[in-house]
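Hello forum,

I keep getting stuck at the same step: I have a sequence, I want structure tokens, and every attempt I make locally crashes halfway through. Rather than fight my setup again tonight, could one of you with a working pipeline run this one for me? It's a single chain of 175 residues.
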Amino acid sequence: MSLISDTAQTSTVFELIEPSLTDLGYEVVRIRLHGAGRPILQIMIDRADGADLAVEDCTLVSRTVSVLLDVADPIAEAYELEVSSPGLDRPLTRAKDFQSFSGSEARVELKTAVDGRRRFRGRLLGLDGDVVRMVVPLDAVETEFALPLEAIEKAKIVLTDELLAAAQRGRTNQG
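Reply #2:
Ran it on my machine without issues. Output:
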């Protein structure tokens, strides 16, 4: 399974909606179906042009996805559709995310251990081929790790004071 979707159902949803969303100028960040009772189909999106996501973007994508899913009906049970931005502490689900957010603090969990560890928290150094490089503080010493992209189970940016301050500066500069 990919990091964008984690089940056969969500992979089918991705295959159904991705071409249309690409045509509209959006990228799928993650698809999850979760919750008990009436589950939530969560679709996280980014704008392909890198601009901030607006409520109108989520509305357009929600309407588009609803039509596509109503026709194909890939999920038998009733569910709620949620379309959203990845947020500041966004999941890292695509290879390009590990490069784009180089320098950010991240938390990475692996399917199988690398150097005896499955969980890493540190600063992303980027992507080198199919390997995510990151520096992790261990016993007051920064140690660099090379984590195979295919071994990553989940990863996300860590919400830090610096990240919040940068986001606030961005909002202030926009005007």
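The first strand starts at residue 26 and ends at 34. If your local run keeps crashing, start a new thread with the error log.
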